[in-house]
Structures are given as structure tokens and as C-alpha cells.
């Protein structure tokens, strides 16, 4: 150890990474929507190298302004507000509408596996929001996303959130071996929506 230099590298917080990306764009005479930079920073998971790599890919497909919608489309992602809206349909037990919404997302550029991951992330966000602790919630989400999450967190018992998490989390492995991932995702949503109907909730909570 006496003959080497040791560097303990840490991942950057999203806001720090966003500021770095903004400086890079300003030097190039380019602009970006704040939410677009936040999406890139989230996707990079604190890695400057990954963030710059994603930014390069985005710049190939834009003119002078990086827009939120364009970044989502290029990454095959659905906006957090749209995922929260889907989660709200599930929590209302609206199976028909939830399936239609999922099919519209898949018809875009996202995949069943990626959409499931987004659902899990937003479910965690809503669950933490139920604790009403800003330090735990953090600054990774916009004020509009936080308001939507708070609304959802107050609409159901937190115990239901953990059961919904178990249902969706088990779906990760199911989608990996499914010959038709979308079919598997839809069946997961059937079960998830049933969790919020009084007749089926007790049985599913015991599984």
C-alpha cells in the first residue's frame, strides 16, 4: 500500500451531476430542459462517464435544445408522471385502463422489463413519500412528481404497498424466461389490480 495511490471514488448526487452536464452544454452553446438533464443523471446512476456517454447519444439526435420527451424516447423510458399515473390505475383496481395504458407504452420505444423496473422504482418512491420525510424523499424528483406520489401514498394502507412490491418484484424473473414478456407483464398487472379490490385483497395478502 505504501507504493500505490489509492482513490476512493464515489458516485455523484443527481443535482451535482446535472450541474456538470449543464456546464458541458453551456461550453458547447447548447441548452437543455431541466427534466431532460435529470433523466440523464438518473440513468447514469451517479457515474460521470455514463452521463457523458448518454449525453453524446442524445446530442446526435437533437439540434440545440435537449427536450425531456426526446430523452425518454431515446432511452426507451416512460416519464415518471406517466408511470405514477399507471400506478394510480393499478391502485384503483382499474385493470382495463391499466392494460390499455401499458400497451400504449409498449407501442412506443419501451420494453416490458424496463416498464416493470420503472413501476418498482415509482412504487418505492410512493412508499417513502408516505413517511412525509423530505430527507428520505430527496431531490431526485420534481415537485409535480412529489405531489402525485404524496396523493397516492395517502390513498392506501402502506401494508398494501409491500404486497404490491412482492407481486411486481417476482415478475422480474418471470419476464426473463417468458416467451411473451408483454403477456407476463399483463398477467402481473391483473394480479396487482386485484390487490385493490375488497374481495380478493385478503387472499392475495396471504400469498
Instruction: Tell me how many strands there are.
Output: 2
SS element count, helices: 12
Mean pLDDT: 86
Strand order in the largest sheet: 1-2
Distance between the termini: 52 Å
Estimated share of beta-strand residues:
under 5%
Which percent range fits the helix content?
over 70%
Unreliable stretches:
none
Q: What gyration radius follows from the Cα positions, in whole Å?
A: 19 Å
Look at the helices and sheets and give the structural class: mainly alpha
| General form | globular
Q: What is the helix/strand order?
A: HEHHEHHHHHHHHH
Largest beta-sheet characterization: 2 strands, parallel
Q: Please, what is the oligomeric state? A: single chain
Overview of the structural elements:
The chain is mainly alpha-helical and 207 residues long. Helices cover 70% and strands 2% of the residues. The chain has helices spanning 14-27, 34-44, 48-60, 68-75, 80-91, 95-106, 112-129, 134-137, 143-153, 158-177, 181-194, 198-205; strands at 31-32, 65-66.
List the topology elements.
Elements: H1 14-27, E1 31-32, H2 34-44, H3 48-60, E2 65-66, H4 68-75, H5 80-91, H6 95-106, H7 112-129, H8 134-137, H9 143-153, H10 158-177, H11 181-194, H12 198-205
Parallel strand pairs: 1-2
Question: Could you give a short description of this structure?
Answer:
With 207 residues, the protein is mostly helical. It has helices at 14-27, 34-44, 48-60, 68-75, 80-91, 95-106, 112-129, 134-137, 143-153, 158-177, 181-194, 198-205; strands at residues 31-32, 65-66.
